[in-house]
Each structure stands twice: as structure tokens, then as C-alpha cells.
Amino acid sequence: MTGGTDDRPEALLEEARRVHGSAYAPYSNFRVAAALEAEDGRVFSGVNVENASSPVGVCAERVALGTAVSSGARSFSRLALVTSGDRPATPCGMCRQALAEFGTELEVWSEATDGSVGRWILSDLLPEVFRRNDEGSRA
Description:
Elements: H1 10-20, E1 32-38, E2 43-47, H2 60-70, E3 76-83, H3 93-100, E4 107-111, E5 117-121, H4 122-125
Parallel strand pairs: 3-4
Antiparallel strand pairs: 1-2, 1-3, 4-5
């Protein structure tokens, strides 16, 4: 984990903070908000949505990614997460794989409740991306 206050993507973190309260997490009480920045500068946000049948829930990162893709975005530069955790959290494995479909050089920023921020590159979080053998790689 690296990063300092000088290089934080403040506007992106602010967007994640703005939607954080909308997260629906009645079972885990772990709220997550994501703001995903496309290469063209558009920002797409999402929050986690839990469900009594836990596999039905969806992570904030994949909500933001789905909104971005449905809006035509296919290339991304940064992802900011704001969580209700006591330390910066990385995307789960499923979200890492979903994001990697669109490239592995994505900067991932995460802010905890105390304001501490972590920074990673997706390729470091998921060094061996799954790819189908019969499809081309975008990463």
C-alpha cells in the first residue's frame, strides 16, 4: 500500500463519500461506495447492495462498473473506494477480476473511516488475471 495526501484523487474520493450513505448493508454493516473514473474523465459511482440471500448482493465496484459499461465506457484510469472499515480496503477477488476485464493498470484508492488512504495498482492486487483462451486480452 502506498500513497500520500499530495497525490490523492480528491474529487473522485469526494464522489465516493457523497454516495457512501446510500449503501445498503443491513447484514454486514460494512458500507462501501465506489467512484470509477473513465479515461475520458466521466465518473460513475455505485454502492454495495446486500440481500438476505447473500449471493444476490452486489459490490459497489461492480455497480459502478456496470453503470459505466452501460454508458459506453470501456477504459478506466482510477477507482476510489470509501468504506465504513477501520482501514483502507481493497476490492474483493470477484471485483478485481471484473475490473481487470477492462485493463489491469487501474489505480485503486481506498479511504477508511479515520481518513487513512491506501493506493494500489490493480495488476498488483490481481497478478494472474483469468483470461479465456479463445478471446483476446485487453490488459
